[in-house]
Amino acid sequence: MRRPALVLFDLDGVLAHYDHAPRLRVLAERTGATPAAVNEALFESGLERSADLGQVDTDGVLEELSRRLGVAVSLDDCLAARAAAMQANAAVLALADAASRHARLAILTNNGLMLRDHLAALCPPLAPLFGDRVFCSAQFGLAKPEPELFRRCLAELGVAPAQALFFDDKPDNAKGARRAGLFAHTYRDVPGLRAHLAGYELLEPRHDPH
């Protein structure tokens, strides 16, 4: 394949910088708990993983988190914490924008429904490029690197695996995509992404952002 019909991007670590500490800090500040208690309630307990797999919906996460912390936790609390943890990677978005002249764009992330449903508010720079083409593991009940997740996501988009290109910062996820029949590369840095996109004829020199 030279030029794909679709370029599929991971979210955290590719399209957006992610820092775990601010998420814990903001949620702790809003609930009066310690960051360690938040970490235990949301992550060490397996609650976030269950949400990522679609086993718990957003209301369920809020209810269970409130129970574990002993204080009411609102959707706004969780969104504020998630927003504090992520910042759009402007250089990657510039390359994605250039590639969008030749292919459709979409996101596939290991995340719960809350992030998918509120991503435009959490990270506004993504909205113009990706719109409603944001897919999360929770809606399929599978997580990367499971090959079937990629197949189901592409089925929703109406794109054959052989016509799709995927980027993820985790090598195992790129391998899972390749097992599903996609072309895939591990994202390491902006120059590498630029080189890959150019190799698939997705960038024109005059539009190639620097």
What does this structure look like?
This protein has helices spanning 20-31, 35-44, 47-52, 58-69, 75-85, 90-99, 113-122, 127-130, 137-140, 147-157, 171-179, 190-199, and strands at residues 6-9, 16-18, 86-88, 104-109, 134-136, 164-168, 183-186. It has 210 residues and is an alpha/beta fold. Strands 5-4-1-6-7 form a five-stranded parallel beta sheet. A two-stranded antiparallel sheet has the order 2-3. The longest helix has 12 residues, at 20-31. 42% of the residues are buried.
Short account of what is shown:
With 210 residues, this protein is an alpha/beta fold. It is built from twelve helices and seven strands. The longest helix is centred in the first third of the chain and has 12 residues.
Shape: elongated
Q: How many beta-strand segments?
A: 7
Note the total helix count: 12
Give the strand order of the largest sheet, numbering strands 1, 2, ... along the chain: 5-4-1-6-7
Query: What are the secondary-structure elements, in order, as H or E?
Result: EEHHHHHEHEHHEHHEHEH
- Could you estimate the helical fraction of the residues in percent? 40-55%
Label this structure with key terms.
5-stranded parallel sheet; single chain; 52% helix; 210 residues; 12 helices; two-stranded antiparallel sheet; alpha/beta
Ordered list of secondary-structure elements with their pairings:
Layout: E1 6-9, E2 16-18, H1 20-31, H2 35-44, H3 47-52, H4 58-69, H5 75-85, E3 86-88, H6 90-99, E4 104-109, H7 113-122, H8 127-130, E5 134-136, H9 137-140, H10 147-157, E6 164-168, H11 171-179, E7 183-186, H12 190-199
Parallel strand pairs: 1-4, 1-6, 4-5, 6-7
Antiparallel strand pairs: 2-3
Helix pairs in contact: 1-2, 1-5, 5-7, 6-12
